[in-house]
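Holo prediction — zinc ion.
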Amino acid sequence: MSYDTECVFCKIIEKKIPSATIYEDPYVISFLDINPRFKGHVLVVPKVHVSTLDQLGDEAIAHLFVVVKHIAKNLVENLGAAGYNIMINNGRVAGQVVPHLHVHIIPRYKDEKQGMGFEVAFPVDEKAKSMLNDIAEKVKLTKEIKPIFRSEEKKEQKGHEEEEREGNSEKSGKSSSLPYESEYFNDDGTPKFK
Ligand SMILES: [Zn+2]
């Protein structure tokens, strides 16, 4: 994982090319799409060069989507959108143009074209429709996916000292550090690049 010198989004992250940035933290950047499909069409981009969602760590994905939520709410409130689409194109075959993972948030307005959702991009595949049960059998995910937030069990294992420290940080209004794995981030919270 690294900045890719040829990648336009890596260049934006490194401030080598300008963007209409609306949000930035050590893990994620969000800026307006230069080819907006509707007013306020933004991209939310992790600050690690991975191509597709499945290549990003669970914690990084969790933070990415928390940011997506806040930005979507902000767009609705400030642009008067009536709804929004959230899209990720993964791979060329899926229409991905820049090979650096990005989430599209596309505000939608009452006075604009309606119904530009699945029915336009993806008409119903009747053959696939006739095979729902067969396909479900093929793609069933049997492993348990543990939630990334701290479990009650872990909380109970913590010492009294740590509980006190957390209590104090709550009082002072400071949020605790994000639970990112070192695979992606350094101890100080900065992204790790190879
Ligand atoms: Zn990149």
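READOUT: The domain at 8-139 is CATH 3.30.428.10 (HIT family, subunit A).
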